[in-house]
Amino acid sequence: MDGDRDPRRTSRVRGLPRVLALAAAIAVPFLPAALLTGGAPAVATEGAHPGFVGTTTCAGCHTVEAAAWRTSDHARAMAAATPATVLGDFSGVSVTDGHHTATFRRNGDRFVIRTDGPGGTVADFPVSETFGVDPLQQYLVLFPDGRRQALPWAWDSRPREEGGQRWFHLMPQEALRAGDPLHWTGRDQNWNFMCASCHSTGVRRGYDAARGRYDTTWTEISVGCESCHGPGAAHVAWAQAGTRVEIAHRGLAVALRDRSGGAWRIVRGDPRGIARWDGPPRQSTAAQVETCAPCHARARPIVADPLPGARFLDTHAPLLLERGEYRADGQIQGEVFEWGSFAQSRMQRAGVVCADCHDPHSGRMRAEGNAVCAQCHLPARFEAPDHHRHAPGSAGARCVACHMPAVTYMGVDRRRDHAFSIPRPDVAAAIGAPDTCTSCHAGRTQAWAAAQLASWHGPPRGGPHPALAILAGRAGARQTDAALAAIATDRTHPAILRATAVTLLPMPPSQASAGAIGATLLDPEPLVRASALRALEGLDPRNRLHAIRFLTDEFRLVRIEAARALAPVPLNALPEAARPAFARAWDELLASERVAAERPEAQVNIAGLLAQRGDQAGAEAAYRAALARDSAFLPALVNQASFEEARGRPEAAEALLRRAVAAHPQAAEPLYALALLQVRRGQIGEATDILATTSRLAPHEPRYAYTHALALHRQGRVDAAIAVLARQAGHRDSLIAAATFERDRGRLGEAERYARAVLALDPQDREAAAMLAEIARRSSR
Fold it and tell me: Locate the Cytochrome c-552/4 domain: which residues (predicted)?
């Protein structure tokens, strides 16, 4: 399950843009389990797709490539469940992990798993397809409504001596029950949306919203030639033409072969010992990386069923370096695949492509061990003990040991970081992240590792590491605007890092933030421009007209972000000449959200956009659609409540929020929204009680305590208010409020103490300085 849509993650908190950063979804009604237990599994027909000819046709001429492909993980990405493809032990064994239980048996050529299904009923589920092969294999179940669901029990296909040849649960720590989005029957384990486009070729998802079912088809069940090269019919016609009339790219939709005649070469005498491209510019650099990117990146599709050959940012919105998915220094953390780390690398900026290291047909490395790196890095310099400081031939002497740290996903799947970064244990210590040195030298500290590196190679060069600003920006720390602005506008940094820095700029913008947004709007990198347009959402709609010029940007992602930024701007406020471009980009924006129409968060996004355009009926319909897909979907309930209040229906808003609280009793967000609603309705006593509960549920969220204190103060309960604020020692607004409350009741010494605490957080805080000056004047009277 590749792309942005892999549910096999450890965290249960997942969200898509414009919602409340809560769990995402796909909802299709389940049929009774009894309907799923008998008969052979239905087999989806391989659908006709214009121009696709299939790998068998390609293999007729390209025998060497086809032979290599047959040994690849791509060739075995998915297959019909047969004795030849099923690796797991279906001999009648039963397994349990304390939370979940399953039995695996075989009936002739039919493979069945007995476990808890829809509604929690234990039943037999026939396996329709295998999913993957190494280092684990999963299994799919086809439901009568066209859904394929990924079972949570996987077969560890590694050799027994490596701990393999066993069944294991992918989320053993979670007692998942039917109805949970992460339960194997739930929306986040749905193959049709989450997985199909990257595990099969020529996929059409075929979701029918009216019937709530799928008619998903493919031209090839696994990842075949045309997944990368595009539809092959025109190429076959070219090959079969007796005259061999020359046509563009020999009829292929994607030009992957580099015909420039250049090569990577290490220049004799170059002290760096690193290869440079020698010859005319490579012709296919972008095409090669962008062919791999859609399935090797965490990314949101913005067009339906994209075909190979399109530019990545015309079909997908990639995940940036978000908290929980990447460490602040860019190390992989969540299951983000390879593109996001490779996009940070010097390799990518130098023009290296995936196929420089990986054979694109077999998927194997171009060479074994350090030899693959030695293609471009002079062994005499880099494979020497005075560089790597480990015994020759040892594990520590491998290039990947230091420059490609690995993280294990799905229990057994160890994947390497593709940023090719230089170890910085000092930075890792500062941001609370692991580092590659002490990951091996477990008994040593990061300070020891940093000292060792400094003694060998000298102190780190350059200024402050960007990770420090990214960490501060994620935490919402004050006075980070200048550092983030410097990263965003420094074009020597990779685009994905600069785009991330833009998203962390504080709002409302300071002078530094505003300057950075203005500069990045004109950035040559479309990913940076798109993030700058998102940053405009923090501005008043009247100040977003800068987005107009980007409605006709050459990249779809930029155009839809321009339309999103302009969503609340009345049509009559747009220049008449820009209105047709806005209409086209607006249609692209809505179409991008409707790609995921079966998911409630997409409907919430659509509702929010339509509400901004004043389409109340359309917004209401979209909220209804979201709740039809998941009646307890928290972002839909909370956002619709805000929508109902805005159109003068506070009773409807309250009903939705109370429904949200009942469905999510441990969630603070709906309680907080309900409390604010009651404050606005003048029911301050009830609001105060609700805020007290909110603070208990989320004690580390200072804004809840801050609002609780304001409510207490409004009721005249000043001592109680200050007691709440005093517990928020690092929260600037709480300290300012405490200082204000103490000043107003004449306790100037206490007011001064709180004001000085604010200045300790930020010596440039003007409000705190002014308060201290006022306290000094009043004290001298």
Answer: 192-230
Cis peptide before 508 (omega within 30 of 0): yes
Q: Which two three-digit tokens encode residue 419?
A: 């940023």
Residues 20 and 132 in one domain: yes
* pLDDT at res. 47: 64
The SS3 of residue 597 is coil
Query: Tens digit of pLDDT for each residue in 253-293?
Result: 888 888 888 899 998 888 899 999 998 888 777 888 999 99
Pick the closest to residue 557 from 262, 279, 319 (CA basis): 319
| Cβ(51)–Cβ(111) below 8 Å | no
Residues 335 and 407 in one domain: yes
| DSSP of 476-503 | T-TT-HHHHHHHHH-TTS-HHHHHHHHH
Domain hosting residue 284, numbered range:
263-424
Compute how many other C-beta atoms are within 10 angstroms of the C-beta atom of residue 422: 13
**SS3 call for 181:** coil
Q: Are residues 520 and 497 in the same domain?
A: yes
DSSP 301-334: ESSSSPPTTS-HHHHEEE--S-TTTB-TTS-B-S
Q: What is the pLDDT of residues 6-50, one digit of tens each?
A: 433 332 222 323 332 222 222 222 222 222 333 333 344 566 678
Would you tell me how many other CB atoms lie within 10 Å of the CB of residue 777? 9
Interhelix angle 732-744/702-714, nearest 10 degrees: 20
Residue 734 host element (H or E): helix 732-744
**Based on the domain organization, do 112 and 161 belong to the same domain?**
yes
**DSSP code of residue 538:** G
Per-residue pLDDT, 36 = 33
Instruction: Note whether residue 326 is domain-resident.
Output: yes
Domain boundary among 226, 255, 273: 226
